[in-house]
Amino acid sequence: MATIQIDAERCQKCGKCVQICPTIFAQHTKGAIPHLLDTTRCIECGHCVAICPSEAISHSSFPSGTIAPIQPEQLPDTAQFMELLRSRRSIREFSKRQVDRALIEQIIEAACFAPSSHNVQSTEYIVVQDPAMRQQIVELTIAQYRQWRKLLGNPIARTLTRLVRGSTGQATLDELREAFTNLINQYGQGSDPILREAPTLLIFHGDRHIGFAGVNANLALQNASLVCETLKLGAFYTGYVVAGSNFNPRLARLLKLPPNHKIYAGLAIGHPRFHYKNWIERKPTQIQWF
Ligand SMILES: Cc1cc2nc3c(=O)[nH]c(=O)nc-3n(C[C@H](O)[C@H](O)[C@H](O)COP(=O)(O)O)c2cc1C
Ligand code: SF4
Ligand code: SF4
């Protein structure tokens, strides 16, 4: 349980800490020092410490060294940030050069700053840089797609799908089967359609019993992918690995995934072989205003 104290001498009695707290940790009456109420529901988000203008709050979860002043001049303006968002692309062509450990650590640090439901910070990370292990992941993923392709060709499964979903369902299955066949064939011809020869795979996993663990992991991934862009690294979302991993216990064992953990996201990372010259507009989206 968090221990929170307010230094009466430092407190300016502004009440901001009480107003921004997502739980009701204290009560504030105008011109008075906040009166601590229930700190047991504190989610350790640090908002109170971050907003206090006079460093009057000491919170057991945030000892010295965990708090730093925001430097507004370091923040990108909207134009700069939009340029970053527009220029980020899924990079699938990499040089053979491995990504330095320090850069991966920086990417994970960026990921950790993503929001998480109830501030659970549930996302954990696995970094795969070992070429043999990386290859095993590719092989196990392909094996999973082989199994799925077989299942999609099963006459009983096809008849059942036709009965339940009609001809549209059948067509979807056929499309999937064709896509899986292409993937397997590409692999058979010596290319790597799963990780695209990226030297690093960053896996985002979490306890499946934690609410929103998947959303939290994917928000973390997006932070990571944006910081990759600033580090001049290329990255793409490894959907095939993520989808395959949830059905292949051998992959979970290989990665020493803790019990009850699930892989929610994966990012293949490397030094890009090419640099893009232009950004391209997205499709017009549908927006409803009320
Ligand atoms: C999936 C998800 C659901 C969330 N739902 C709520 C919510 O319903 N109400 C709320 O006040 N904050 C919500 N949050 C915000 C989190 O509480 C917040 O991200 C966390 O406390 C960390 O604080 P920060 O985002 O200021 O770093 C949600 C965040 C995520 C990722
Ligand atoms: S850390 Fe967050 S939840 Fe806890 S008291 Fe401060 S503002 Fe409230
Ligand atoms: S934010 Fe800081 S200064 Fe303001 S009331 Fe809270 S403890 Fe006091």
Automatic annotation (TrEMBL):
CDD domains cross-referenced by the UniProt entry: nitroreductase_FeS-like
Coiled-coil regions, chain positions: none
GO molecular function: iron-sulfur cluster binding; metal ion binding; oxidoreductase activity
Alphabetized UniProt keyword annotations: Iron, Iron-sulfur, Metal-binding, Plasmid
PROSITE patterns per UniProt: 4FE4S_FER_1, 4FE4S_FER_2
Source superkingdom: Bacteria
Protein name: Nitroreductase family protein, putative
Annotated source species: Acaryochloris marina (strain MBIC 11017)
Top-level taxonomy: Bacteria, Bacillati, Cyanobacteriota, Cyanophyceae, Acaryochloridales
